[in-house]
Design goal:
The complex is a heterodimer of chains A (201) and B (466). Chain A has 201 residues and is α/β, with parallel strands linked by helices. Chain A is built from eight helices and seven strands. Chain A has helices at 21-24, 44-47, 87-95, 107-114, 125-137, 166-174, 178-183, 186-194; strands at 6-14, 72-75, 99-102, 119-122, 142-146, 151-153, 159-161. In chain B, the strands form five sheets. A five-stranded parallel sheet of chain B has the order 5-4-3-6-7, with helices on both faces. A five-stranded parallel sheet of chain B has the order 17-16-15-18-19. Chain B has a four-stranded parallel sheet with strand order 11-10-9-12. Classes of the chains: A alpha/beta (201), B alpha/beta (466). Chain A: Keywords: Amino-acid biosynthesis, Branched-chain amino acid biosynthesis, Leucine biosynthesis, Lyase.
């Protein structure tokens, strides 16, 4: 996994709560057997009027020129709810997002994002609203997310602290391979298995 | 110290808990399907890693299989590649696979319990959010992403932070015609679609204890629809009777020691939960969703809500967007809402009891003109049982289509898909925008409510049929 320390980038937003993973990557794009190439289908049904993806919806933020190249996504509460499909963070990351900022995230999506080096940041509703207001007001507004200091820096310079589990922060900062680390506990796993009752073996 | 059911299962699965790291939890059973596993198998191959416990890994094909034909030719080219990739991976890594030709093939969360793979007191994971279903047995079961699927394959463990605990108690008894689906929809309506985020929920109370295993699975299945990490029900005689004798259930002396262990699996009387929710079962009317998330639910005798009644601006905006998408007006009586499609199936409601309940409504009646209704049994074994009871004939005589097992129109990855503008009474678990087909509108209901709607052409209050 690629390490995440700090990121500064153009921010965009989808001003909705409960954005589910069916919207992030609709089911018709889940039939691939690889992890790449999902970005073109990100938010397909909101982004395009047609099934082929030839006719963009100009009202949708990700289609607007002022947000081209955005790497920070702002949204309302319970982002990533629903299906466990990891294709959702794959699509967000492949599209170019590095950070999602929302008042809350669904549990599975949150974990999947961290496992892909995509940083989910929880701020308060008021802070997210302030970021949305600032980003809307100023074309090209950039947001900085500093994982080392656990701070989000708004375009105005306002700083918002955020919390993240220390284990997740450590893995992200160092770009660690979670499986590789867990395999160093092989002896403990073997010992655990040795004491299992027969009905669980 | 007093412990909750969740804490007992959690504590018994800690392999290591190093300082500053998430604890390493042992996984007893890993269920695998074609959509969320190919990249995990590829990851193992690229890293040159082994599948640690193939005997604890069980695979089936369900998400994009055809319900019209058991031939690979019935699949789209990409779906076919995905299904064939699963077969190749299972062959290469030695994983038991229930493919589309196997009599035990079915929806992963129907297949696991009926084969006795799902056991109380175990940790069960799958790359699918509805893994919560297995919590009905007092297992700790939850959905994971593909990176975690690969982690389990390589280590038979997962990194997990301990969740908070929530007790959801449904006191007393439900009225006639009220099913597990109505109970869980009422719970989601009460606490909201993210009311359970960060929690493992234990469902309890007389109304939960009175449910069959099928009913408990329906309730736990939708724990994810309230955002919960998992849902659990303490195992009891109903659980033990269900598990006994199933193919992978313990046998002989192992069965005796398992049952002894399972009898300890209940929250201690003085265990402390982080949150406690109480519902009175007698208050629960037949439920159905009106909007675009499972928390947007009303009782059949209530009107579509008015966004102007909602003080929170974000919630008001969600209601307005949902009303626009589903093309309903605030104040509309749900019994006045017509449907043109009916889907009876999914990991929520495709078990034998669900089909019996739907068939009871369909028997001797006809699907209304202009309505297309399909019944998709959850597994080959459910289909076989239903046919032995003559349920297939009841459905077919009433004008329903009787299909082959699979996830089908719950997520519409195969060709069982709604068209734009279709309105569907669905026994599935998610009414998200476009879930069953772009531009389509889904209303989540119980199997009996779905079958009754198929016959009437609009939603009806099922209590009037009893």
């Amino acid at each position: 996994m690629q390490a995440f320390t700090t990121h500064t980038g153009l921010a965009t937003m989808i001003d909705s709560a409960n954005i589910d993973t069916d919207q992030i990557i609709p089911k018709q794009f889940l039939s691939k057997v690889t992890r790449d190439g999902f970005g073109v289908h990100l938010f397909h049904d909101w982004r395009y009027f047609d099934d082929a993806g030839d006719t963009p919806n100009p009202a949708f933020s990700l289609n607007q020129a002022r947000y081209a190249g955005a790497s920070v996504l702002l949204a309302k509460e319970n982002f990533g709810c629903g299906s466990s499909r990891e294709h959702a963070p794959w699509a967000l990351a492949d599209f170019g997002f590095k950070v999602i900022i929302a008042p809350s995230f669904a549990d599975i999506f949150y974990g999947n994002s961290i496992n892909n080096g995509l940083l989910p940041v929880c701020l308060t509703e008021a802070q997210v609203q302030q970021l949305m207001d600032e980003v809307s007001a100023q074309q090209g507004a950039q947001v900085t997310v500093d994982l080392q200091r656990q701070q989000v820096i708004a375009p105005s310079g306002a700083e918002f602290a955020f919390t993240i589990a220390e284990s997740a922060r450590h893995n992200l900062l160092n770009g660690l391979d979670a499986i590789g680390i867990s395999l160093t506990y092989s002896e403990a796993i073997v010992a655990y298995e040795a004491q299992l009752p027969a009905w669980r073996a | 110290m007093a412990k909750t059911l969740y804490e007992k299962v959690w504590d018994s699965h800690i392999v290591a808990a190093p300082q500053g790291e998430a604890p390493l939890i042992y996984v007893d059973r890993h269920l695998v399907h074609e959509v969320t596993s190919p990249q995990a198998f590829s990851g193992l191959k690229v890293a040159g890693r082994q599948l640690r416990a193939p005997e604890k890994t069980f695979a089936t094909m369900d998400h994009n299989t055809s319900t019209k034909s058991a031939s690979l030719d019935a699949l789209s080219p990409m779906a076919r590649i995905q299904v064939e990739t699963l077969a190749q991976n299972c062959e290469e890594f030695g994983v038991r696979l229930y493919d589309i030709h196997h009599k035990n093939q079915g929806i992963v969360h129907v297949m696991g319990p009926e084969l006795g793979i799902t056991l109380p007191g175990t940790v069960i994971v799958c790359g699918d959010s509805h893994t919560a279903t297995h919590g009905a047995f007092g297992a700790l079961a939850f959905g994971i992403g593909t990176s975690e699927v690969e982690h389990v394959m390589a280590t038979q463990t997962l990194r997990q932070l301990k969740a908070k605990t929530m007790k959801i108690e449904v006191r007393g008894h439900v009225a006639d015609g009220i099913t597990a689906k109505d109970i869980v929809l009422a719970i989601i309506g009460k606490i909201g679609m993210d009311g359970g985020t960060g929690y493992v929920v234990e469902f309890c109370g007389e109304a939960i204890e009175a449910l069959s295993m099928e009913g408990r699975m329906t309730v736990c299945n939708m724990a994810i629809e309230m955002g919960a990490k998992a849902g659990m029900v303490a195992p009891d005689a109903t659980t033990i009777d269900y598990v006994k004798g199933r193919e992978f259930a313990p046998k002989g002396a192992d069965w005796e020691s398992a049952v002894a262990a399972w009898r300890e699996l209940r929250s201690d009387d003085d265990a402390v939960f982080d949150a406690h929710v109480v519902l009175q079962a007698a208050d629960i009317a037949p439920q159905l969703t009106w909007g675009t998330n499972p928390g947007q639910v009303v009782a059949i005798d209530q009107p579509v809500p008015n966004p102007l009644d909602e003080p929170n601006p974000t919630s008001r905006s969600s209601i307005e967007k949902a009303l626009e998408y589903v093309a309903l007006t605030a104040g509309t009586r749900m019994t006045d809402v017509s449907i043109n499609k009916v889907f009876i199936g999914s990991c929520t409601n495709s078990r034998i009891e669900d089909l019996r309940s739907a068939a009871h409504q369909a028997k001797g009646r006809k699907v209304a003109a202009g309505v297309t209704a399909i019944v998709v049994p959850g597994s080959g074994l459910v289909k076989e049982q239903a046919e032995a009871e003559g349920l297939d004939k009841i459905f077919i005589d009433a004008g329903f289509e009787w299909r082959l097992p699979g996830c089908s129109m719950c997520l519409a990855m195969n060709d069982d898909r709604l068209e734009a503008g279709d309105r569907c009474a669905s026994t599935s678990n998610r009414n998200f925008e476009g879930r069953q087909g772009r531009g389509s509108r889904t209303h989540l209901v119980s199997p009996a409510m779905a079958a009754a709607a198929a016959v009437a052409g609009h939603f009806v209050d099922i209590r009037k049929a009893y």
